[in-house]
Batch of 2 targets.
Target 1
Amino acid sequence: MSDNGSVAAATWEQVELARHPDRPYALDYIHAIFTNFLELHGDRVFGDDQAIIGGPASFDSRTIMVIAQQKGRTTAERAMRNFGMANPEGYRKALRLVRQAERFEFPIVAFVDTSGAFPGAGAEERGIAWAIAENLVALSAARIPILTLVIGEGGSGGALGIGVGDRLLMMEHSIYSVAMPEACASILWRDIAKKVEAADALKLTAADLKRLGLADEIIPEPPGGAQNDYGLAADAAAAALRRHLKSLEAIDTDQLVEERYQRYRKIGATP
Amino acid sequence: MFRPKTRYVALPSPRAGVGEEIDRLICPKCDTSLEPARLTAALGVCYRCGYHFRLRAPERIAMLVESGSFREEDQGITATDVLGFTDSQPYVNRIEQSRATTGANEAVTWGEAMLGGHRVVLVVLDFAFMGGSMGAATGEKITNGIERAAQGRLPLLIISASGGARMQEGMLSLMQLAKTSAALGRLGAAGVPYISLLTDPTMGGVTASFASLGDVIMAEPGAMIGFAGARVIQQATYETLPDGFQTAEFLLAHGMIDLVVPRPELPAALRQVLDLYAPTGTAPDLQLQRQVKTVAPAPAVTR
């Protein structure tokens, strides 16, 4: 039991690292890895959601389309970014950028960092579930390479809403889960204090996802975590993005889209 | 006093016991004591207030399809505990309990059937099996159904009732959202119509994937439909939620679904949609079947 307890404690440490307030956020990576980032705003329907940002940027000699979940650093920015929890407008802005990327043949690089889509009455009224589902369809069929990089928290459908792609890369201390441990504990254990046990049971660390065959690569972080050296973390991320993008760009588009379909099709397939 | 507060009507499994022992049912909405026979004749709709009781998958299928036309597929596919998940009890025990209670191997049943004169692929979720939650096997069966519809150019009807993703399967569950949505993307691109019928309740990852992707989306009156649960929203935002929040009628008013259809009117509504959308040539015996299907819908429970 103490053995299980220490494993659970180690998992919880990963959860806390993934949420570390000094951890680099999407814009830190974007400015370190790309040049010429032009942030585009608005979903052309309702508003501009600051929890999901995006736009074209230069990466090596090509233009790529960035789509990213952005948390805030200061209290004011956290409020502006809604703690990285997007409303439907954020997902619809992302959809607009996916369509644009397809039209101009820009590969997509998506940075995932959210505890989940925003649980709010307005989000429900404006169809948060509908917005996410539309993105799943659009991303799964988009005729351009798509790289997904989880930099901090990957929370449930809210993460997946910008997270469908050809490769899933995870920073060493990032997590990705069907539900945040607190939510899982309160639903299954009916006790939020069981979050440590829930985190362990959910198999949500980067290493877990690699073992399950869901993540393609774990990107090493500086000792102690990415918060200790943004430059090193961004360099490692850039190298991995460059390598995977190059290999995806070599694949014929029809084959690329078929391989992406099969990538998800085989998850949970009966032998 | 024994006052069973069930949202289900006529649980069919003798092992469950409930359906056998009680001779009165209490409507959760109007609190009326209901006669099971009358309730069954009313298709599980409270004959006082119109409350729609939840239905089990076999009852739902029997109610909608032409008698004897349903050919079930993938009956043997069942959930597996890949993660070795244990909360207050092991996931494997929960699977066994659900199998014993429902007599089914998974939270979804699918197959081909005749409905309103059309050969269709019918996929039905059952909330009685682990809250209709979507695990890997659930997603696999749904995707198999979607792909069959695409291959056979058969209209697809998915009837949802689910709490969302199945947490006991972790990320393998979440990825079923992407898998089912990708398959529906291909179905749509192939020009095969998909009708999504939302029943009480349809929440979380199921709403955020296949349930909201119908070409035509219908819901039963009063069904709770949404992404985040009302309790979660209130805890996160301290917002006062409006009356009727996340009901089918609320979603209709906000432009998220096309129709709210009372249960007795479902066969006619589905048939109208199928007549309008079904690609020509998918139902060679169309005329014959049309003549057959002019009678009232079959009762909810056939024993």
Target 2
Amino acid sequence: MPTRLRTSVGPRYEGIESAPTGRRSVLLAAASLGLSFALPALPARAARRRGVERPRSLLVVWLAGGPSQLETFDPHPGAAAGGPTQDISTVIPGVRIAADYPRLAEVLDRFALVRSLVSKEGDHERGQYAVKTGYRPDPTAIHPAIGAIAAHELPATGLELPRFIALGGAEFPSRGGYLGNEFDPYRVFAPGQKGQNLVPHVPVDRQSRRLGALDSLTRSFETGRGEAVRRTFHEHTLREALTLMTSEQLAAFDLDGESESVKGLYGDSDFGRGCLVARRLIEAGVRSVEITLAGFDTHARNFAGHTSQAKLLDPALAALVGDLKDRDLLESTVVLVMGEFGRTPSINPLDGRDHWPHGFSCLLGGAGIAAGQVIGSTDPEGVAKLPTDPVEIHDLSATVLAALGIDFAREVATLVGRPMKLSSGTPLAKLLRSEA
Amino acid sequence: MLPAIAAVVLVALVGAAARDPVAVRRRAQAASTETSRSAGATLSTDATVVAIDRLLAESRRAHGVEAAAAADNLTILRRLWLALAGTIPSLEEIRRFEADTAPGAVDRALTTLLADRRSADALARRLASPLVGDEKGEFIVFRRDRFTTWLADQIGANRPWDTTVREMVSARGLWTDTPAVNFITQAAANGVIDADKLAGRVSRVFLGARLDCAQCHDHPFAAWKQGEFEGLAASFAQAKLSPVGVEDDPARVHRIDRTSVAALATTMTGAGRNVPPRVPFGADWLGSGGTHRENLAAWVIHTDNRRFDRAIANRMWSILFGTAWHEPVDDIPDPGPTSSPDDLLDLLADDFREHGRDLHRLIKVIAATEAYRFASTHPDLESAEGAARVKATWGAFPLTRLTPEQMIGAMGATTSLQTIERDSHVLTRTIRFFRETDFLREYGQVVDSQGGSLPATIPQALVQMNGKFAREMVEANVVTATGRIAGMAHDDVARLEVAFLVALTRRPTSEERESLLPLITLAESKGRGLEDVMWTLFNCPEFSWNH
């Protein structure tokens, strides 16, 4: 039976319909106190809980533009497809990755490495849609990105921060799709700063007068339109926004409290800072975090381009995984590292590689994932189009959802009543730990 | 962002700055009402409008719902501006409207609005989205703009909709000098035309049927079969891109080979078949002797193809009311065997066809219905059950959220007292500008067609409260409405009234006056006080929900 979407969203709006008496004073209260008022602070117990007992979170590291599998996690030095890229050994015996990733090589056993992803979309916009949602673009529905599904399905008691946060400017942002715009990610374009539009333009006394007047105009619009106005959730959204503006949890966005040595480990780059913020957000109880590193679309100068990307990605990703492990957060966090497709085994005249959705790589680690293994292989000579043990995108999304403990096959009804499965795929048993 | 906005705004304001900004341009107004008086004759007694009113009255009676009170004229004016021009009326437009005190002012305003290029442009943008998509990419955007401008030309000149559609489906030539072909080019990737995409768009926009669901499987609840979709797509197989643009090559065939990308996909069809053009119904409406596309175009617009007229009627209803008669707008029930006076879409479709597929008339007919002129208040809206009844019977005007584009338009209009976008291309440029800037990046996507009005998101609330644009908009200075209202009106009551007119297209009630006046009187200056007023108006639900 499909679950009505509005019902499933319901708990989030609790209080607005069940406690109409409180509503009137809420904005005034916010104004006069200038404080966080509606929700208790994140219960210390929940935030501090560690290990497998902790509620799960999803962390997607999105490599935008289509990273070359051959210059990252699936090098073929010396073979026709290999190009000049060299490889190095890793902590997983017999498994080698590109030489640009020495630090990742040391922690590769925290991940399962899939080298045989296949997608059907070779265009950036369509490709990222397919990979992020597990569905091909469909003119009749917008499917939610996996991060939005995680935010929708995973509990977030006491959280004042948005449940789905995207760090870094992605060209094609993830969408909440049929789950609703409220599951679009909260986007932070410059990681390390608090996030945009959180500070009122005016001092407290004026803000307070403004909110008081707003309350009165809202009442006035509600007159004669009661239910219709309540269904706009206008006031509820405003209240959540005001809560966020004054939340102490916003400190999670702020890196001032981190030592220079920790910051140094992640690297002095927006992406490095973003990864550190991502760790802090996960720690604060955010259920779904996505961080984007763009710049992998190397139709020209593929090798130089990938080397400079690796200088950003290698330290940040290694530090992130190490940090999550040290803080005992890795057992509750699924980490997915991938882009919209890979790049061609052939090298074009501009020393570039083009789009290739037929055999590309991703890293999958953390909660419930059977790490330390490699799945699939691509042809070093670049002749065979398809990899061995191909993994289809929708099965990967089902695997991630299963690792998060989400009922991936659950049907929810879209706004127009059409039932949709969260994932149309089947989890890959070998990627999941048996106890998960 | 500030300098660029200021530049856009200034272009239009410089000339106006010296004049009294709220002066009514009586000369222009006199001229425009004179010419439109006859054309603006009310349609409220038109047979189709009467039939629709009767149908809806019966429906209300059956559900025990009273009719809502009539909305006041300014409210209707705001609705019309949002629907047709994608913005709200400026103070100047409001003054002009109020100066026309003869009966039928709303009808005249509608006629004037339809003759305005801004409406053609905004309507074209609304219609273009499902026709040519919203994908990014420089070349794609160029071609889409070309197509949209062409479509706006057709809408502005009120060319019959069937003629316009025939051109889209069958035109040949270069994307630059035959803009209609961009309906075809927008479905091409890497030089290859995606026939499936075109068939999907034809079925959804022109037939009101999601035939493309049958691309991969038979439609779950309609009679469409996979083979029918393939046959429709095959009508585009001859089309190809060449140095002379889009042309038709009789030698080309539609070949289905769904195993080409990944052999591991479950293929529900066998590999490698040639599919001939085929239509799912009404085969005798097909043209003959032309290209496959020309034959298909003749079928689509055939006067017996009632789906064609019902589809545009439903879409126009959606543009005017903010929500379609049947949601989703592109998946409406099959028509009955014959046209029925009990089917609202049949009433509109028959009228549309009998009047030469006249889009302007279709808009006027819908806007003349009682339902369109109901208030959005209703006693039954106090309870959830009552609200459901009201909604089902269109017993009150529905509340729908402004599209991001309407939001931009409304914000632009609120910033200024004059119609800054008197020249439509300025509005178009403004929208284009915002599409490409932080505003939409922070506010959300332009895509708004998911069938249903979605609540605002937290980031949207934050943009409206604390965003850069919100600050620039409410800031009291020489170019903003806020600054000019603060400086000009006689007293605080008058200032408050102008602020309400500018932002909400109405005057404050006495309670509102009482609760908002202190914002001005207690403030350190009139400017600061007006900023607080404008901020409040801009953030209240009434601003961002069409009502």
